[in-house]
Design a protein that fits this description.
Layout lengths: L2 H19 L6 H12 L6 H8 L8 H13 L3 E5 L5 E5 L6 E5 L5 E4 L3 H15 L9 E4 L2 H7 L1
Parallel strand pairs: 3-5
Antiparallel strand pairs: 1-2, 3-4
């Protein structure tokens, strides 16, 4: 087993532990869903998760995928991504003050840290202009990764 495979097995195991700590049963169908979403570097919608997870668990039902995604989001392991197309996808949650860069060509995600001072200035401007008090934010930037740019140009 390679070092990368070993790290992914540990990550999947920690996700299963987190579900169990929150009172959820660990079933083979849930394991198949977790294997897919915990290892993905792409935004996945529930149907994509379903199709990929069925490769390892052919009897998997689509309802189980939706329920598992919901539970993973509840315990903070998945984050919802709102895409320009209107479709929602999901990515493994990250911790700390970070943001997403999402390729509109292939769906690959990159996590980046923003310039805190610049973001704070923007938030203060929005608060002043709108009268809102901003408690939190989540920045998503959409574009084309270098691989997709190379394919089209």
């Amino acid at each position: 087993m390679s070092m990368m495979d070993s790290q992914q097995v540990q990550m999947t195991g920690s996700w299963l532990d987190r579900l169990q700590e929150n009172g959820y049963r660990l079933t083979a169908p849930r394991q198949a869903v977790i294997d897919v979403v915990s290892r993905s570097q792409f935004v996945l919608n529930p149907l994509e998760v379903f199709e990929q997870a069925r490769q390892s668990y052919p009897k998997l039902g689509l309802v189980t995928v939706y329920r598992t995604i919901e539970k993973l989001e509840e315990v903070g392991l998945l984050q919802r991504v709102h895409q320009p197309s209107g479709c929602q996808g999901f990515v493994a949650a990250f911790h700390g003050h970070q943001h997403l860069l999402i390729c509109q060509g292939c769906g690959r995600i990159e996590i980046f840290s923003g310039d805190v001072e610049l973001v704070n200035t923007l938030v203060k401007t929005v608060e002043k202009d709108s009268g809102y008090h901003v408690d939190d934010h989540w920045l998503q930037l959409f574009g084309m990764c270098s691989e997709c740019q190379d394919k089209i140009g």
